[in-house]
């Protein structure tokens, strides 16, 4: 098997889900056989928004021939990763380079996990929601937009409300009675808005 690990391993984080890794080629004599390529082992150490450590699944990407760089796609935003690089010949893999730590920046969150509308009265509705399964960063706020829908399915004026990130419910007052409303709800990090969840509900006709 090869004798030497690739040196000078560098990671360039391109965005929240993509990084580029560079390394110096090993001396050909140290390969002790036919150089087949390089393997990059990489794994997520932890999510920076949740301090949980779970079973670590190592991923491996193989770059054929005498390449000295490769792309690592499909990373999770706002996470800490480690990687190392090994050279490969027909017999197997050489030793691993020292582990390199890198962090991905924040991304936009996934949609809120649920939006539930309860307790209709003549002029109010209660909204409850769950935070995104994948915050992909630090949540800064939620945005709620809503508008009335009339019997011919035309949409009325859109109202927009910003809600602090630590809230999980809201009572909407001063609504019209016996009116159907459509709601659009999403979460934000400093990077931007995540995908929205939509729901409809009706205020009651009379007490």
Percent of residues in beta strands:
over 45%
Number of strands: 15
| Main beta sheet strand tally, sense and closure | 5 strands, antiparallel
Number of helical segments with 4 or more residues: 1
CATH architecture of the largest domain: Sandwich
| Rg, alpha carbons | 26 Å
In round numbers, the mean pLDDT is 95
Structural class: mainly beta
The CATH topology of the largest domain turns out to be Immunoglobulin-like
Approximate helicity band? under 10%
Low-pLDDT parts are none
* Fourth-tier CATH superfamily name of the largest domain: Immunoglobulins
Distance between the termini: 81 Å
Topology as a string of helices (H) and strands (E): EEHEEEEEEEEEEEEE
The number of distinct structural domains comes to 2
Task: Write down the overall geometry.
Answer: rod-shaped
CATH class of the largest domain, anyone? Answer: Mainly Beta
What does this molecule look like?
This protein folds into 2 domains: 7-104, Sandwich (Immunoglobulin-like); 112-202, Sandwich (Immunoglobulin-like). 2% of the residues lie in helices and 51% in strands. It contains 1 helix and 15 strands. The radius of gyration is 26 Å and the shape is rod-shaped. It starts with 6 loop residues before the first strand and ends in a 5-residue tail after the last strand.
């Amino acid at each position: 098997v090869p004798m030497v690990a690739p040196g000078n391993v560098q990671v360039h984080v391109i965005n929240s889900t993509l990084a580029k890794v560079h390394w110096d080629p090993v001396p050909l004599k140290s390969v002790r056989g036919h150089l087949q390529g390089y393997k990059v082992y990489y794994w997520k150490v932890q999510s920076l928004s949740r301090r949980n450590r779970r079973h670590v699944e190592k991923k491996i990407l193989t770059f054929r021939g005498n390449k000295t760089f490769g792309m690592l796609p499909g990373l999770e935003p706002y996470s800490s990763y480690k990687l190392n690089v090994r050279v490969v010949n027909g017999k197997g893999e050489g030793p691993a380079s020292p582990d390199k730590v890198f962090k991905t920046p924040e991304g936009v969150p996934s949609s809120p996990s649920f939006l539930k509308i309860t307790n209709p009265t003549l002029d109010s509705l209660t909204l409850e929601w769950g935070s995104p399964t994948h915050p992909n960063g630090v949540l800064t706020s939620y945005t709620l937009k809503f508008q009335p829908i009339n019997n011919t399915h035309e949409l009325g004026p859109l109202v927009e409300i910003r809600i602090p990130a630590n809230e999980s419910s809201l009572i909407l007052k001063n609504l019209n009675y016996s009116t159907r409303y459509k709601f659009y709800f999403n979460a934000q990090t400093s990077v931007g808005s995540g995908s929205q969840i939509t729901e409809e509900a009706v205020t009651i006709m009379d007490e």
